[in-house]
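Section 5.1 Outputs to date
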Amino acid sequence: MRSFQPPSEKSQLLWVFLFFAWFSGTVQLLLLITGKTSGVGLKNALIYSIPWLIIPLWQHRYARSWMLITGLTMAVCGLLKFGYFLMYNQEISQSIFYVIFDSNMHEGSEFFHTYFRFWMIPAFVAYLAVPVWIWIRYQPAPASSKKRLWLSLLIALTIVEPFISHKTLALGWNSLVDRQASVAPWDMLMNYTSYQRNIASVEATLKNMNKIDIGEISSTDNTPDQTYVLVLGESTNRQRMGLYGYSRNTSPELSALKNELLIFNDVNAAIPYTIESITSAFYFSDRSEIFTAFKTQANLIMLMKELGFSVFWITNQQTITSRNTLLTTFSKTADQAWYMNNNRTQSARQTDDSVLEPFAEALKNPAKKKLIVVHLLGTHLSYRFRYPESYAQFTDTPPTDIPLSSADVDLYNEYDNAVLFNDHVLASLINTMKAEDPYGFLVYFSDHGEEVFDTVHFNGRNALAPTPAMYTVPFFVWGSTEWKARHSTDQWNTRLDRPYSLDDFVHTWCDLASIQYAQCRPEKSLINHQFVADTSVRTHPWLRDRKKKIAKNKYF
């Protein structure tokens, strides 16, 4: 049988490129085709497969050996990624190491058996067959001097371009590392090292928390069984909710429950960034201390545990990243935690209905006193990944005066569709709790809002150029009949329009959960009759030098 020959001199290196790109690009292509992510991962996988050509380009005699040695390592990494995609329909990330090493392995084994199918075995064989076929058939040949020159320049460009396009070496390096996160075998190595670094930060913070003396704390509510639910939203601007008067009916299910909700109309995010916003909401400290408060002060979760509550943490945010180590620390203090999102990036298809099953399980837990924290992905970018296709209901001309391109129109409508599905998830959580009928309440707020062509031609958040949409957030409370009667919530109807900042939320929580604690201040509680509105300019501590620029946005 005659050995295979490349069809032309121009394509001789193409076979080598396809060999290396297969291990990195296959899963990225599947993620793109199935609508799980954008094409950024595939683009990076293809671009950063080019440097592997350096040996075949300059030392073609060693091309097959080079492909064999590196290919074996890539095959192991690629097979893990491919299998993970087939079983869990997600891209493998550093979070998988957290799940493997820091969760119940028995539960992990059950999860594996639930998703594994025998048809996956021939799929694994087919996956490996392609690079094996290329390696067996390929006959390397020397490249021309011209090709060597141009491809060497291209290889160099793929390495140095991140440093050129960023202002500093550190930013350039971070960009290069981020792009390599799609490329075998560096992806697995980087995921593991990131996990090690971030979990070390979590453990250090957790160790410090355990040293904090909470002091005296008590509750004025002696009800034997209590269930309190805190739902943390993400990137949702209340001005885009029909519940708050938006022209589009983006919250039909919550509107149907409107008579059962206490809806607060002037609550605003303290900071338009997730970690800072939730941190400031969980601690008693001033916002200027949010980066140090966790070292010396008790937080909301610690207070509830001290009162004898079992804590359940359900999150659809990324499990562990360099940005959310404090949230991961909170989750590790819980008695039970569910991590529903192990995607490598936030810009991946992950819908919040995944929290409904563990939420129902937590409600049925036999613990007498329960705190259930549900952290949603809400309406976070990319908006089209936050809802199933059946919720793509808004496709017409958006109700905004901002001139929009066709791409802008798509973004605007995708955001409203994400708000619509967020409405469904929230209503489902409430209805699930109603069905169990425990004594207690559910409180929901979004960590911050999002500007999506509401007042300016801009999409996202920028604290240096704030707009109302970045800060205006929904905030409502649902309570059981008995709990509402005990707390005389009918008196709160005159308090629904109070201007309020989320960095005082823990004081409101004290009243909701009937907590008696020295640091709980009634004048900072949204629902307390002693409430005093804080009319000071709501700015970031690190932006004080720019107060004049943003003073007009003190409350929106």
